[in-house]
Amino acid sequence: MQRAIEYIAFFVVVVLLQALLFDNLLISGLVVPLYYVVFLVLLPVKMDRLWLLVLGIVMGMTMDVSMGTAGLNTIATVAVAFLRPVAMNLAMGKDVAHESIPYGGAIDNRSFVLYATMLVGLHQTLFFGFESLGSHPLFTIGKIILSTIITVALVVLTARLFRRVVG
Amino acid sequence: MAVPVLFIIVEILAIGRYTSATSFTRARLLTVSNSVTGRVNGTFRNVDDYFSLRKENDMLSARVVELESQLAEYVASPTRRRITSEEIAPYLFGEARVVKNSVFAQHNFFTINKGLSDDVEANMAVLTPEGYVVGYVIDCSERFSVCMSVANRDFTMGGKGVHNAYMGSLAWDGGDYRRVRLENIPHYANFSVGDTIVSTISYRFPPDRVIGYVEEFEPSADRMNSHLVVRLAADLSELDRVLLVKYLDGEELYDLHSKY
User: Fold this and answer.
1) I need a surface site. Which of A151, A157, B29, B129 has the fewest CB within 10 A?
2) pLDDT digits (tens, 9 = 90+) for B84-134
3) Which domains does chain B have, with CATH numbers?
């Protein structure tokens, strides 16, 4: 895999940011950023589907231990890892095939934001949906929408930095 | 072909694990992650300290005044009453600080900076310095303990009105972390908005500790049990210093109860 060391470092940074910063920010019950999904969003374009899934499992299990959620994060990350090629195809089409990272030079902002929104939205929907198990449906939907907006903004900021450092 | 199959298998395993997990399983995981992040979280706490000194000093002096007046009353009372008084209950107190907290999940826990090496053990009650109920210890490592917050869907304890003896069981419905419900109170019990709800004695909690105040009272329509909405006295999102309470006879009470 290309840039293995960069991605390992990125994994560590993302996990620490989630555990030490975002998990401790008690802003509002409606804004609970699950920022760590950025790692799966920014994995290399040509990454093998099996590798994607394995890294989805690793990230999910790491966050499950960190947050004490026993499986909840894994439910969400595995689905994101599995459906990532579909989201990439829908949002960016053939343009992305020549890029190495999802936010490559030829990718316009709109396509990337659409791609990130699909994955982040899927992730937060599964996480908060399974967490609430149908109770307080309106509150849960509000939480999914607001948390997705904030997380997508964080993902786009990170992607810009990432392109400068790695890309 | 292999990838979709692996995806489905992992998804089923994860859902199975999540839906069968108990609060104890979740607390165990947090105990493991605390061994990695606990120290760093403690460092953040130290930075916070400088900004809350004044507020804390005010609270502490108010508390000293309250305890001094209770002590004065106690010393002035006749010896006989002192011996038979319920106040001489076999409780041990300790203090700790919250290093990690959560309020927006369905199963909220917080972590304190004392563990097995400080003689903390499971089922100790956790109160704010003002004496308000916030949770109890569920799992300990050497230097940290994970506590179940009142705002946890698995949390349960007994509560009663401070002015009447009607008891009910306290539970959180997963919504607003500032409000809990007191359920299964008899339909003829009468409460009014603003009444104080305190703990009943149990193997975890000392009696008569303030839980919160009645916000809504819904008398039962069907002459079955009614319930109360209780606004918590403690602000769970602002936990810092906490008191730990161990009931020395707790195990005996638990053993006796678990026989029936």
Assistant:
1) A157
2) 555 555 888 888 999 889 888 889 999 999 999 999 999 999 999 889 999
3) 1-89 (no CATH), 92-260 (2.40.10.340)
Q: Domain tally for chain A?
A: 1
Tell me the nearest-neighbour CA distance from A53 into chain B, angstroms. 7
Element spanning B67, H or E: helix B23-76
Q: Which has the closest alpha carbon to B217: B182, B243, B242?
A: B182
Q: What ipTM is given for this predicted complex?
A: 0.86
Taking CA atoms, B246 is separated from A38, B14, B23, B88, B243, in Å, by 44, 37, 21, 14, 10
**Where in the sequence is the domain holding A24, given as residue range(s)?**
2-166
Contacts of A34 (CB under 8 A, 6+ apart): A18, A22, A73, A76, A123, A124, A127, A147, A151
Strand B210-218 to B167-171 pairing: unpaired
pTM of the predicted model as reported, rounded to 2 decimal places:
0.82
| A29 neighbourhood in chain B, CB within 8 Å | 103-104, 176-177
Tens of pLDDT, residue by residue over B147-184, are 999 999 999 999 999 888 889 999 998 888 999 999 88
The C-alpha angle with vertex B147 and arms to B144 and B149, in degrees rounded to 5, equals 150
**B32, B37, B175: residue with CB nearest A20:** B37
